[in-house]
Amino acid sequence: MKLWIIMIALLAVAAAAIWGWQMLAADPGLLSIRIGHTHIDTTLVFAVFALLATWIVLSLLWRGLRWPLRAWQSRSRRRSRERFATGLTALAEGDHRRALQALEKASRYPELHAPALLASARAAHARGDSERTETALDEASRHAPAAALALRAQFLLEHGNAEAALALLKPRADQNDLPPVGWRLLAEAALLTGDNALALRAVDALASADALTPEALAALRTRALAAALSATPDSDALSALWSGLPRTQRAMPEAIAAYARRAAALGQPLAAMDEIESSVRKQWSERLVAVWGQLGPAHADTRLARAEGWLAAQPDSPALLLTLGRLCVQEKLWGKAREYLERGLAHAPSSALWETLGECMSGQGNTANAAVCYRNALRIARGESTQALSDAARAPLDTRATIAEERDAHGMPRLAIPKEN
């Protein structure tokens, strides 16, 4: 189809050329030019071709005259790009003095002016040269104001001045005029200064801009939600914030843990227990099971009974064994507490298990073993080996693996198939 169109177009052009040539052959036209005593008579066709030839000659002469200038500009561009690449490489290598020299030279080229100045500011900041850092940022702000603002806020955060970074970014945030990196820095500054509402707003802006990976966005949102929930002043504010969250955010274990801790602290342990129990019923979470034992003394007997019910499905869970030990200590069930805690230590030793076992020993009046437990908690935190308790005559704990009942997606129990030797 395209070939036929091209052939028809060529035939039309040829027909037009033939017709035009016949017209010009019959009457080539007359052009008369009179300037003072000079009089030039020629045909129109010759005049057109003469003008075209003159234009071509002048263009070639102009290109020839400009060739040295264009060659010099091309060489300058190439040198600037090479210096820019050298400066970035030196910046990555930590050679900040060489990076500054190369980047400041590269910034003389207009196309590289802003990025070279921003990189120069990074190099000067890494070198500790605050004066050159400010100079480079001030100059870069004329050509790339958003990038310069974000970089200045990043430097403030690196120096631990979150208040100044927040004051710098917040006016632009109120105008919705921040780049993605600015929103991320604003979230960090807001979290550090306790402005949790602003941190959540920054996270929402990052989600709208699709500026982070889902994993990074979820981690930042988790931090912002946990901080906001933990800082609510009263139970009404906590309930309003929690009920206003989307269902997906209320299903996050970290958010549930923060809500439960704050609800228990504000005198609402039943609401905290309900959220944790509902979540654990849907999907097991070591974090939430650990929080189950950190809700204070309220309803400790009820929580102990529920945790013991979970033990059948999760017999070797370190978090559950720690929670059982803590609840038994609260109820002064010293023998059961020691059994759960020692079982947890046999599976996964931790500072929290040793510390809780020390509380159990103190409750029993065994100060010598309590001191050993507390020392072991410190040793575990330092990565050192632990010391055995003094009552070696106690019957050894049965640490054999316990087989829990497993069910499929339809609730039917699975048969345990023994492994072949």
Description of the structure:
With 421 residues, the chain is mostly helical. Among the domains are: 84-143; 144-231, Serine Threonine Protein Phosphatase 5, Tetratricopeptide repeat; 285-386, Alpha Horseshoe (Serine Threonine Protein Phosphatase 5, Tetratricopeptide repeat). It has helices spanning 2-26, 44-93, 96-106, 113-127, 130-140, 145-158, 162-174, 180-193, 196-209, 214-230, 235-244, 247-250, 253-265, 269-282, 286-292, 300-310, 318-330, 334-347, 351-364, 367-382, and strands at 31-35, 38-42. Helix 15 runs parallel beside helix 17 and helix 16 runs antiparallel to helix 17 (318-330). The model is unreliable at 395-404 and 415-421 (pLDDT under 50).
What are the defining features of this structure?
421 residues; mainly alpha; Serine Threonine Protein Phosphatase 5, Tetratricopeptide repeat; 71% helix; disordered C terminus
> Can you give the helix content as a percent range?
over 70%
The 3D shape can be described as: elongated
What is the mean pLDDT? 85
Largest sheet: 2 strands, antiparallel
Number of strands: 2
Within CATH, the superfamily of one domain carries the name Tetratricopeptide repeat domain
Tell me the distance between the termini: 73 Å
- pLDDT < 50 runs, ≥5 residues: 395-404, 415-421
